[in-house]
Amino acid sequence: MLLLAACGGNDASEGEENQVSGNKTITYQSESGPVDVPENPERIIALTNAPNVLALEGKVVGVDEWTNTNPLFEQRLEGIEVVSEENLEKIIELDPDLIIAGTHMSNLEQLSEIAPTVAFTWGKLDYLTQQLEIGKLLNKEDEAKEWMDDFKGRAGAAGDEIREKIGEDATVSVLETGDKEMYVFGDNYARGTEILYQEMKLSMPEKVEELALESGVYTLSYELIPEFAGDYVVLSKNADVDNSFMETDTWKNIPAVQQDRVIEINTKASTYSDPITLEHLLETFEKAFLESE
């Protein structure tokens, strides 16, 4: 599920100025209560939500391994260490002034003794609220809000154009390749689903809505792909697994495949719902839908 997990998910928080040990801080209202954090953190370890921090140009010194494998962040992560919550010695060595973690992680108490630690529950906040909360945490709330409003406007306008071109009733499904199975996604599980369904207001096939909308993701065998394929298919393709199913008649006979209506995206570059990933996927979808014949 680590591969499938996306960073997203609704409680707002307020920040207020404070003075702690002579250092200027703000009080961030986290899920577990108020946490005094640096007003302008200089050494952030992001064990989760690192892409959201990078999008706001937060000064990161350590990130999780999965973020580090994402090709979209390669240049931004040059010289930044890969760490986990288990490696406390490495975290101490990096001398962080803020740690961002997940509530599911171990050693949260020990982490909070090293530096102010804020933990988020994956999936609790929708993708926009998550970015807003990171903005509040980094004292960059206005920047986060500005991006949110701008992105929603641009994605919504693109959706209007796309629906006008492909038809209001046209359906789009988002599939991902696995080792021996496929995954199909609802409207809040990264892979661009928030853009396609929430902002562009494109429709998903009935089978997808029935089995994946509430849960976020549904696992199926390759043989069942035709039942979940929409008029258009966004295929999150994982290069690390066997993709020979694409050579089968089952795949080749799907109408979206025959009509060249398959939009391929890189799994490793699409498993987050942060601004960097979303901007990349918005551009990808606009080109695929609007510039195709």
From TrEMBL:
Polar residues: compositionally biased ranges: 18-32
UniProt xrefs under InterPro entries: ABC_transptr_periplasmic_BD, Bact_iron-sidero_bind
Region (Disordered): 7-35
GO CC terms of this entry: outer membrane-bounded periplasmic space
Domain Fe/B12 periplasmic-binding, first and last residues per copy: 43-293
Keyword Endoplasmic reticulum attributed: no
Source organism, top-level taxon: Bacteria
Location within or outside the cell: Cell envelope
Record's keyword terms, sorted: Signal, Transport
GO BP terms, alphabetized: iron coordination entity transport
PANTHER family: IRON III DICITRATE-BINDING PERIPLASMIC PROTEIN, IRON(3+)-HYDROXAMATE-BINDING PROTEIN FHUD
Entry's family note: Belongs to the bacterial solute-binding protein 8 family.
This protein's name: ABC transporter substrate-binding protein
